[in-house]
Amino acid sequence: MDIQITKTTKPRLADFDFSDIPFGKHVSDHMLVAEYGNGKWMDWRIVPYQAFPMEPKCVTIQYAQCIFEGMKATMGKDQIPVLFRPELNIRRFNLSAERMCMPTVPEDLFMEALKAIVSFEKGWIPQGKGKSLYVRPTMYATGNDLGVKPSHSYRFVIFTLPTDVYYSQPVKLVTENTYIRAVPGGTGEAKTGGNYAASLLPAQRAKQQGYDQVIWLEAPDYKKIQEVGTMNLFFVIDDKVITPRLSGAILRGTTRLTLMELLKDKDIVVAERDITIDEVMEAHHQQKLQEAFGVGTAAVVSHISEITHKGKRIVLPPVAERTIAPMLYHEIEGLRSGEITDKKDWLVPVAQMEYEH
What we know:
Elements: E1 4-5, E2 30-37, E3 40-48, H1 59-63, E4 66-68, E5 71-75, E6 81-84, H2 86-99, H3 107-120, E7 132-141, E8 154-163, E9 171-176, H4 193-208, E10 213-217, E11 225-228, E12 232-237, E13 240-243, H5 254-265, E14 270-272, H6 277-285, E15 289-296, E16 300-309, E17 312-315, H7 324-337, E18 347-349
Parallel strand pairs: 1-3, 9-10, 9-16, 13-14
Antiparallel strand pairs: 2-3, 2-8, 4-7, 5-6, 5-7, 6-18, 7-8, 10-11, 12-13, 12-15, 15-16, 16-17
């Protein structure tokens, strides 16, 4: 793949303060871009991070044809950047594309593009526990025909953001009993912008009430648990780990799958099944609810300290008393940093590119 390079004339890396990098605020100097038209991807290039013009009648604005992924690059002990199981994100990205009637990106081109931009921007990878270069592959429609139909052209972009720990403290959650995130047969399995737009109002209301996020329940009964905010959910009940089964309304999380595999490798019982909020509340009543945590690329593992459901609040055991979630977080971060040997070839090294600056 031929990638054209245009370096920024205003680099910010030398003066960037890596001690203050809240999630999503700062981007690196460059991004990778490609265009789709006439049935093929073309014009692959690395350019300075920038805005693109968009018409008001663009299909992305009018009909939300847009998808994205989230992944991380970290620096290994040998100072070679590594990606963590990127093939899973590539496959999920393409599944999202198919669901949103968008073109897929060939896996080999996608992987080469990922390595190219991470190599080019490797100076932006923060050093330190829990820190990483967040990598955001994105695709959106660029067609401007006003009509409910797929676009004829698309833009593929990969930009990167240095970031620190996403959630540094345990979170307080409240169940959402009015609004829903997704339903089986909808777009819940796709990482598309509309899913997240629909979550903003309930999340805002929860924060106004003093909570960090919401637990999504499945309509019409509002009993079956789906996700927490933008993450998959895990519960530890009576020494068994439980996570909601994939129903078509729940995102196929890379971190979720990885943690399930790690648990099985350690002979820890993990069940992928339907679980209701009533079961969780009853488990707490019986003093069997030992842990609850959300998992995702940004946070990896986020401890849950409290859950409120229909006015009833339960408080979970202190983090210091938990064993499963801390162990899983240590395993993932240890693999990324090289402190734990990667026996499954989950880490994909990013070799130095000849056009690096």
